[in-house]
Amino acid sequence: MRVLIVEDERVLADTIAEGLRDEAMAVDVVYDGDDALERASYNEYDVVVLDRDLPTVHGDDVCRELVGRRSRARILMLTAAGDVDDRVDGLMLGADDYLPKPFVFGELVARVRALARRSGPPVPPVLEGRGVRLDPHRRRAARDGRELRLTNKEFAVLEELLRAEGGVVSAERLLERAWDENIDPFSNIVRVTMATLRRKLGQPPVIETVTGSGYRLEAR
Q1: Cis peptide leading into 102, omega within 30 of 0?
Q2: Regions of the chain short of the pLDDT cut 50
Q3: For labelling alongside 165, which of 47, 59, 127, 159 has CA 20 to 30 A away?
Q4: Cβ atoms 96, 76 nearer than 8 A
């Protein structure tokens, strides 16, 4: 999944981003409302983690604008104000969830994953196909009962293939969903990651290359 962090406290923003990347998420970070609206205009996000008290453009206005654009991204609003009226105000603007500061990081991760499941077609919390079982919440993957030790990017790529349920996923789509905006679009990183993932999955092959289109889980 792809997440945008919008938080003007840079240390907090970067800490959240690093933690979510460790959960195999692709994460972009901005520190004010103007940059948030710009990024959301050309990148597709599953979840926007949005601080309410932002410079340049207030978080309320960012939320209102994203909702007005009918963005598919779900919005998790953060604020230092934790009373009920503040939570109600944020939700009335169109935020999907609300988390007061300070928060426990594990709860943030759980809320981000729950919102991401609602940003597209319904998917189960545990993904399965071709003997592969992937649990994003626990960061576990296995094939035919054999545990797979995957890097964050291998995990993210496998998650996208399982979510596609046999559909073709292009290399461009994988770059967009598993890497952040700093990746070189002409990099061969998808091909390299796919090669190591295939090796770890073992035989018989699970991932098929569809020439000129991308990758998919092979049909039985």
Answers
A1: yes
A2: none
A3: 47
A4: yes
Average pLDDT of the residues of the chain: 88
Phi, psi (deg, nearest 5) at residue 117: -65, -25
Measured between alpha carbons, how far is 196 from 49 in angstroms, rounded to an integer? 32
First-to-last alpha carbon distance for the chain, in angstroms, is: 27
| Residue-level pLDDT at 90 | 62
CB 52 within 8 A of CB 91: no
- Give which of 99, 123, 134 is closest to 16, Cα–Cα: 99
Phi-psi region of 26 (alpha: psi -120 to 50; beta: other; left: phi over 0): beta
Q: Which two tokens stand for residue 21?
A: 């990347």
Q: Which two tokens stand for residue 80?
A: 């230092």
Could you tell me the two tokens for 177? Answer: 């969903």
| Cα 17 from Cα 9, distance rounded (Å) | 12
Residues 6+ apart with CB under 8 A from 167: 216
- pTM over 0.85? The answer is no
Query: Cα(178)–Cα(170) distance, rounded to whole angstroms?
Result: 12
